[in-house]
Amino acid sequence: MRRRIILAAAVLCLAAPGLLLAAPWEFDPAHTGVHFKVRHLMISSVRGEFEKVSGKIVYDESDVTKSSGDIAIETASINTRVAKRDEHLRSPDFLDVAKYPAITFRSKRVEKAGNGTLKMTGDLTIRGVTKEVVLAVEGPTQEIKDPMGNRRVGGQAAAKINRKDFGLVWNKALETGGVVVGDEVEITIDVEIYRKPA
Q1: Which of 13, 17, 169, 196 is the most exposed place for a label (fewest CB within 10 A)?
Q2: Burial 128-152 (b: 16+ CB within 10 A, else e)
Q3: Which has the closest alpha carbon to 182: 197, 153, 161, 198?
């Protein structure tokens, strides 16, 4: 009886391979980065990153518009390579990390934008304020196989936001005109996902 069950299962798999469920795509935080750029003193730009990112990416290979992404960024992990500045950015003047430990993005829809690009629309939440933003996505890249045998796909998303829309209003006026910190923030997200061998 047991041999018949095993044989029947084998025949079913050969007859309908699509019934074998593939492993899901997994988010790779070690190869995902969130970077930003903002004007300083109206003459140069400060660049930084968040070092701790987690998330979930649903990647539909047959129809990429059915894909989705949720990303959580640990605000305390901000790094601009200047300890005193990072301490200020973590304070209530800016991110207030004690009260708002995460920045989140939750996608709502994905649309093709032509030339191998996508538009991902979703809700970005910073300091408890949620606004709809549109990420311009380059990718997904062509799938590759890493040395461990995992299949990997990457993509890069970018957006520009006004920090004041999210309650990040701290600033100081300059004697010569202008302000210390610009309002526009450029955000870039590099994401890598992988699928283990079947």
Answers
A1: 17
A2: eeeeebbbebbbbeeeeeeeeebbb
A3: 161
Are 156 and 117 contacting, i.e. CB atoms less than 8 angstroms apart? no
3-state SS string for 90-136? HCCCCCCCCCCCEEEEEEEEEEEEECCEEEEEEEEEECCEEEEEEEE
Instruction: Please give the helix or strand (H or E) that residue 73 lies within, else none.
Output: strand 68-74
Encoded tokens for 16: 């309908």
Q: Is the pLDDT of residue 135 over 90?
A: yes
CB count within 10 Å of CB 93 equals 12
| H/E segment holding residue 13 | helix 2-15
Residue 83: what residue type? Answer: A
Which token pair is 80? 């601009």
How far is Cα 174 from Cα 42, in angstroms, rounded to an integer? 10
At 10, the pLDDT band (50, 70, 90 cuts) reads very low
Q: In the predicted model, what is the mean pLDDT of residues 84-91?
A: 95
pTM, full prediction = 0.83
